[in-house]
Specification:
Blueprint: H1 20-51, H2 65-69, H3 76-93, H4 98-115, H5 120-128, H6 130-155
Helix pairs in contact: 1-3, 1-6, 3-4, 3-6, 4-5, 4-6
């Protein structure tokens, strides 16, 4: 059946033909992106564990280990600070820009300082979810960067 030039026909477009060099660049990018996606998935699962893993009856939102460990006076929030730092260090490994790492550090600082205040800090931990905020920053940045890198690999 011949294709019509009428674009409203919903015809299937021809696959784009790319050069062997562009295909090699895309293959290398795919490998890099798969490694970064695996690192991001690890950080996201850790963030969920810390901020939203457990559903408790009569609580409207899930809580994580950060909230539970934060109940230990004096050291609970400092322990959670170490895990939050690990998440930011993991984001650094996948080449997050300094502005995002700084924003992530600010989220950790807010979580830690307010978390030190008895009772108020524990309630704050339930709603703030700094680790989930940080992996969201990482995911948004990576998805944007991945798209830019793919476009650049095809444009060369």
């Amino acid at each position: 059946m011949p294709k019509s030039n009428n674009k409203s026909n919903n015809t299937i477009s021809e696959p784009e033909i790319i050069s062997p060099a562009a295909q090699m660049r895309l293959d290398a990018l795919d490998e890099k992106h798969e490694r970064e996606a695996a690192q991001l998935a690890h950080l996201e699962s850790l963030a969920k564990l810390m901020d939203a893993q457990f559903n408790i009856p009569f609580l409207p939102i899930p809580i994580g280990l950060d909230t539970l460990v934060g109940l230990i006076p004096g050291i609970g929030d400092t322990i959670s600070l170490g895990v939050a730092g690990y998440i930011v260090a993991g984001a650094h490994k996948i080449e997050m820009p300094k502005r995002h790492l700084t924003q992530m550090g600010g989220n950790i600082l807010i979580d830690w300082i307010i978390g030190l205040v008895p009772v108020i800090g524990d309630l704050f931990d339930v709603g703030w979810r700094g680790n989930l905020r940080n992996v969201k920053i990482a995911r948004e940045h990576l998805e944007e960067r991945w798209a830019q890198e793919r476009r650049a690999a095809l444009d060369l």
